[in-house]
Amino acid sequence: xxxxxxxxxTYHSGRGTLQALRGIxxxxxxxxxxxxxxxxGSGKTTLLNCMxxxxxxxxxxxxxxxxxxxxxxxxxxxxxxxxxMGFVFQFGNLLSYLTVFENIAFPLKLNNIPKLELERxxxxxxxxxxxxxxxxxxxxxxxxxxxxxxxxxxxxxxRPKLLLAxxxxxxxxxxxxxxxxxxxxxxGRESGCxxxxxxxxxxxxxxxxxxxHIRDGMLQEHPGQ
Length: 225
Ligand SMILES: Nc1ncnc2c1ncn2[C@@H]1O[C@H](COP(=O)(O)OP(=O)(O)OP(=O)(O)O)[C@@H](O)[C@H]1O
Ligand SMILES: [Mg+2]
Prior knowledge:
Rossmann fold, 10 strands, alpha/beta, binds magnesium ion
């Protein structure tokens, strides 16, 4: 489960001071999927990064499975990121010099999963994402939709507790995007993973168990207003 309590984040840059998050409180139940919508610049990426321990709030707390992320020592945070977190980005971010198989197996390797188990899990994931024969291919040989399916498999391979996906469908057409998110939710639910994604697509929003709307760094109770 993920819980944010009064999370704030302000950026100071050449453009001045910008309050990206202005007191966000939310809770997402274990094993469920939440979707966050909001205009460009509303704070979606900042919120996801704070939830995943990639960025630090100025104040407030983020709990993942009861652990206050930002109190973890550096080593504890590294371990948490490696074991318990999965990330999917807008453009897949596959390692271009590795094969599809090696990309999916990467988090398993980092977590010292034994070779036979690593091969079994990776092959099973390749089948589940409809790319059973594509293991030896390189990322640039895949279509955009295929890249994102591999990115989803890689993010879930080590069975993380929390999966964060920042606009995973932004580079895809709407139908490909919704089928990607269906697949992601299906795979994640099977392993009890809590999932949070950001999106601009209302069909993707409809697939989530919980829908959140953010505007100017605040959650909207009544998003239509
Ligand atoms: N590193 C940074 N330095 C300064 N300002 C930043 C930084 N990162 C984000 N911001 C600002 O914080 C606000 C929230 O940005 P964020 O990236 O979270 O929005 P977003 O909802 O993800 O937008 P998009 O839909 O375009 O991805 C924006 O106004 C942005 O310009
Ligand atoms: Mg963003």
